UniProtKB/TrEMBL annotation:
Domain Major facilitator superfamily (MFS) profile: 21-395
Compartments (UniProt record): Membrane
Cellular component aspect of the GO annotation: membrane
Taxonomy of the source species: Archaea, Methanobacteriati, Thermoplasmatota, Thermoplasmata, Thermoplasmatales
Record's bilayer topology term: Multi-pass membrane protein
Domain of life, per lineage: Archaea
One Pfam family per UniProt: MFS_1
Protein name: Transport membrane protein related protein
GO MF annotation, one: transmembrane transporter activity
Signal peptide region: none
Keyword Membrane appears in the UniProt entry: yes
The organism of origin for this protein: Thermoplasma acidophilum (strain ATCC 25905 / DSM 1728 / JCM 9062 / NBRC 15155 / AMRC-C165)
Keywords from the named record: Membrane, Transmembrane, Transmembrane helix, Transport
Transmembrane segment boundaries: 21-46, 58-78, 87-105, 111-133, 145-171, 177-196, 217-240, 252-275, 282-304, 310-332, 344-364, 370-391
Length: 403
């Protein structure tokens, strides 16, 4: 099909009816995000394996965001240069190599390198996936698809955490089930990716730069807001759900990510009911205000030394606002960047947040639980500030075409 200008391309995509190609695109991204979810908490969970000493825990924990950070920046940049589709085979190849390494690992160095490689592929792929989905899906489905697909990571988190929780200290069982889950996701991803089209928006923009208005990287306010949102979600999800276990509650290293992941997964599907019925600006205020308040309540939990059961309730409440904040961020990231720089834009936002996350792992090592929660509350307040900024200075992207 030939298009005379970019507006025709956008209209064709924005007004399309759901078809088999959309199903294939959604399915391949769901499988990829599911496997990434398995990997997302692998690092903190394998700190229970006997060949990882307590002194080495912090380096294993850092290997995951370090691999994601590298993959995110490299793949995001390349996706704007050579296309979205071409990178999906490269990412899955890196991810498979890392997964095999995790299964076969028998010492600290092997698990370190394997987690890095797996996260480089599947973690870095999120940037390309968000750009691809936003560019290819009709307006009426865009928000729901972005939330539904990214929520598959929460399903993966809950699934692998449950395995580690039930298997106890049986490394063999943990590895076998991890391999089976990963293999199922990878097979679906490979089969469906062979049928993927290239992003039509990217193809037209890259081939007809003379026919479209000049596209610039990004405006200061949207960029600042997205960075603030990313800082909140990356630091609080990873720190409270993943790092809190090994550092502060070693007996519950598997339980905490399971509860949080299960809660976010359930809430993620619930959010689909209203995600496109409420504007993105007001939704962001709801998410980050609620998250800030719910996180601040953790300070009362610690001060009054309440039972761990109360902590679980608070964790679930915070999971709802965490998922809502994640959903708003996942939608706005591709919506607020132009096609020419969408991959690099998303990568930059995520890169800043994950760099701070790596720093925070070292900075928070050894601090008290109370100070830890003060930090988490402050991180949520950062996102709340971003939501107020976006509500007062931003613009609505619900039901609008992306450029």
């Amino acid at each position: 099909m030939r298009f005379s200008d970019y507006d025709e391309v956008r209209s064709f995509l924005d007004e399309a009816r759901w078809n088999r190609t959309h199903t294939v695109m959604a399915l391949t991204m769901i499988s990829g995000f599911f496997v990434w979810g398995l990997l997302l908490v692998t690092a903190p969970l394998v700190t229970e394996w006997p060949f990882v000493s307590p002194a080495e825990d912090i380096y294993v924990l850092v290997s995951s965001p370090a691999g994601l950070l590298a993959g995110n920046m490299i793949l995001g940049y390349l996706s704007d240069r050579i296309g979205r589709k071409k990178l999906f085979i490269a990412t899955i190849s890196s991810g498979i190599a890392g997964i095999i390494g995790i299964i076969l690992s028998g010492n600290f160095i092997e698990i370190l390198l394997s987690i890095f490689l797996a996260e480089f592929g599947f973690g870095g792929e999120e940037t390309v996936s968000l750009a691809f989905l936003a560019e290819q899906f009709p307006i009426k489905y865009r928000g729901k698809v972005l939330v539904m697909v990214s929520n598959s990571a929460n399903v993966g988190v809950a699934a692998i955490s449950a395995v580690f929780l039930v298997a106890g200290y049986s490394i063999f069982i943990e590895k076998v089930v991890f391999l089976a889950m990963s293999l199922a996701g990878v097979i679906i991803a490979i089969v469906t990716r062979l049928k993927l089209p290239e992003s039509l928006r990217w193809s037209f923009v890259s081939a007809h730069s003379d026919k479209i208005p000049v596209q610039r990287f990004g405006s200061p306010i949207p960029m600042a807001v997205l960075v603030l949102f990313a800082i909140t979600i990356v630091l609080t999800f990873a720190l409270v759900a993943d790092i809190l276990g090994p550092y502060e509650y070693p007996r519950y290293t598997s339980l905490i990510p399971f509860i949080y992941g299960l809660g976010e997964a359930a809430f993620g599907y619930l959010i689909l009911v209203f995600i496109d019925r409420i504007g993105r600006r007001i939704m962001s205020v709801m998410a980050y205000a609620g998250g800030t308040v719910s996180m601040a309540v953790f300070l009362l939990y610690i001060y009054f030394r309440l039972p761990f059961d109360i902590f679980v309730v608070l964790l679930v409440i915070n999971a709802f606002f965490g998922e809502l904040g994640w959903a708003v961020r996942e939608i706005l990231q591709p919506e607020l960047f132009v096609t020419r720089y969408r991959g690099l834009g998303i990568a930059t936002v995520r890169g800043i947040a994950y760099l701070l996350y790596i720093v925070s792992i070292f900075a928070l090592s050894g601090i008290s639980v109370y100070n830890y929660m003060i930090f988490a509350t402050a991180a949520w307040a950062v996102g709340f500030i971003g939501s107020i900024l976006w509500y007062t200075k931003g613009y609505e992207t619900l039901n609008t075409s992306i450029t």
